[in-house]
Specification:
single chain; 361 residues; 72% helix
Length: 361
């Protein structure tokens, strides 16, 4: 089964913290049992746990066939469910899985990635404060996730590591720009609940990428391509400014030499025809040098063009699965997001207001 080790880690995190089993309720419209058959999101927690335990047996058979989940099944499916006993059995199973996978770098990396990525999206709570949220996206935390993404190798779908890694960077940039506002308004402005809800939805998008869901592995939306194109233009502008800043003396020297030659030609020669002939000759020489320079640069940049296109494709794919919180942004924040290359989420005010108004309490 594709991404089985990652799926197993993700599922173990859900079983240990059963709030995570109810994540798909964020996507489901109100359910009316009188006229609708329930989808998984509409089931109660007990039934969802039963389905998760059935999935656990299948995943274990493919990832760690020497490990048994009999104790977890007995504790989870018993008539007298005890959350503490069930948690202890899940812990013991987790240790057994680690023992089984420790010799396989790709499998154990994918398994740990499933656990850690789920934690990134679920450890923050509206009641826990802004610091508990922001710490999950500090450099060390994201570096660990990227290490597991890279180490998982063939245990996750091709290119998924780059897409999720870039999407994590998008979140880091967004948090960095909004850090002061998040800290100030986490509770008082009600932003904490909005951010946590967005992060839960983001969890499903990242999960879909890492299990090879066709809905997230197709061509990016046009809005994602627009953001990727903006990033390429922004990068080109940054490179140009950086080159001018570092090598201003070279450009100045070239300009001074050309200006000096022109002055000498004009001062040293008499007669309009001789001046224009010399200027044409000088222009031809400079043009020849320019053609040679462009040819050399063109050859040097030939390979870079394909890499730039690959980077743009990756950026578009990452924006296609990035779900940032839709908070109000001031002028300073919008400028900061633009400099960081972050696309603010598009809010449909009337539609969102209607959805919140009509949602049952």
């Amino acid at each position: 089964m594709a991404s089985a080790a990652f799926r197993l880690g993700w599922l173990m995190a859900q079983l240990f913290d059963q709030r995570r089993l109810q994540i798909d309720e964020l996507f489901s419209p109100p359910f009316d049992p009188d006229v609708q058959l329930p989808v998984v999101a509409d089931l109660d927690l007990v039934r969802k746990r039963e389905l998760a335990l059935a999935d656990l047996t299948d995943l274990l058979g493919g990832v760690a066939p020497g490990v048994t989940d009999a104790d977890v099944q007995a504790a989870g499916l018993g008539e007298q469910f005890n959350a503490a006993v069930f948690a202890d059995k899940v812990k013991a199973l987790h240790q057994a899985i680690l023992d089984q996978l420790v010799a396989d770098d790709q499998q154990i990396s994918a398994y740990q990635l499933g656990l850690a990525l789920s934690d990134t999206c679920w450890l923050a709570t509206p009641e826990g404060g802004a610091a508990a949220f922001m710490v999950m996206f500090q450099r060390g935390q994201v570096a660990s996730l990227k290490t597991w993404l890279a180490s998982a190798g063939d245990a996750i779908p091709p290119e998924s590591a780059g897409i999720v890694g870039q999407s994590l960077d998008n979140w880091q940039d967004w948090i960095d720009v909004n850090a002061k506002g998040i800290t100030k308004n986490w509770v008082s402005g009600g932003q904490g609940r909005q951010i946590v809800t967005a992060l839960h939805i983001q969890a499903m998008a990242w999960h879909s990428v890492l299990v090879g869901d066709p809905q997230t592995s197709g061509s990016p939306a046009m809005s994602a391509w627009i953001q990727a194109a903006s990033s390429v233009v922004r990068a080109a502008r940054t490179v140009t400014v950086s080159a001018l800043h570092r090598f201003w003396w070279l450009f100045l020297t070239i300009a001074v030499v050309i200006a000096g030659v022109l002055v000498l030609v004009i001062v040293g020669l008499h007669g309009a025809s001789r001046v224009w002939t010399s200027l044409v000759w000088l222009g031809g020489c400079l043009g020849g040098v320019g053609v040679g320079f462009r040819s050399s640069v063109g050859k040097a940049m030939g390979g870079a063009g394909s890499q730039v296109w690959a980077a743009a494709e990756l950026d578009a794919a990452a924006w296609n699965v990035t779900w940032l919180p839709a908070l109000k942004q001031g002028a300073g924040q919008r400028r900061g997001l633009d400099r960081a290359g972050v696309a603010p989420p598009q809010m449909r005010a009337n539609l969102e207001a209607a959805a919140v108004r009509d949602r049952p309490a």
